[in-house]
Amino acid sequence: MCTVVVGFEPGSAWPVTLLGLRDEQPGRPWDPVGAWWPELGPSVRGLHDREAGGAWLASDDASARAAVVLNRREQFDEPAEGWTSRGVIPLAAVTSGLDAEVVVRTRTFNLVELAADRVRFTSWDGDALRSVDLRPGVHMITHEGPDTVAVPRVSRWAPRFVAAGRPTGEPGGADWDPWLDVLRESATLAPDHDDAIVREDEHDGIVLASLSLTALALRPDRAVALRTARLPEPGHLPATLDWLP
């Protein structure tokens, strides 16, 4: 399951910073950050899922907003018209907003919406759509929601991300090293360890693994800054990251 770390400090030069690990089936193809949805305009960018056409993470440079979706574990019956990919959710969140008629046709999800003055967490558990604004500070978000210490990797590593200090600039700067160092330390664990962040798990016969790392920073007066690195193999984080253009 995906893991996202968010730092939120309203009023600062870079009020939102995010580090996200995307967990997906290893053979599922995707494209790095780009404007893959021309119908939404050139300012909408994201990580493109070639199979379903949506995005795990999307941003709108024109409004300085971003959103990222994480899977949940609840199961319910498939709608008569079939599933709608959860990849439409981040794109809707940064453009037109969530449509309840679309939400009820998706599998369950957690959504994090990011703006300079607000970080909102929304969950869809198959029964109800619930939202809450996150307070300023550093938060670690998984399939269970934000700061859920019952999740072993949150209990172990969230305090370390808090103590490391939130990055205060565009991805790629030295101030991101403390968060990346915590992530590298976590990656010394076996990828199936309960405490691992860089993971490889099997659920219902399907293997999910951490396949990419995304760093995002948001300023209220400019486009969203995004960098993504492919991970060379499931469950492994290299010492030096090869950030894609």
Short description, anyone?
With 245 residues, the protein is mainly beta. Helices cover 14% and strands 37% of the residues. It has one domain (3-244): Penicillin V Acylase, Chain A (4-Layer Sandwich), CATH 3.60.60.
**Shape from CA axes?**
globular
Output the structural class.
mainly beta
Integer average pLDDT: 93
User: How many separate domains?
Assistant: 1
Strand content: 35-45%
Protein described:
Helix 3 runs antiparallel to helix 4. This protein has 4 helices and 15 strands. The strands form 2 sheets. Strands 1, 2, 10, 11, 12, 13, 14 and 15 form an 8-stranded antiparallel beta sheet that branches. Strands 3-4-5-6-7-8-9 form a 7-stranded antiparallel beta sheet, covered by helices on one side. The model has no long low-confidence stretch (mean pLDDT 93). It is mainly beta. The chain has a single domain, classed as Penicillin V Acylase, Chain A (4-Layer Sandwich), CATH 3.60.60.10. The relative contact order is 0.20. Strand 1 (3-8) and strand 2 (16-24) form a beta hairpin.
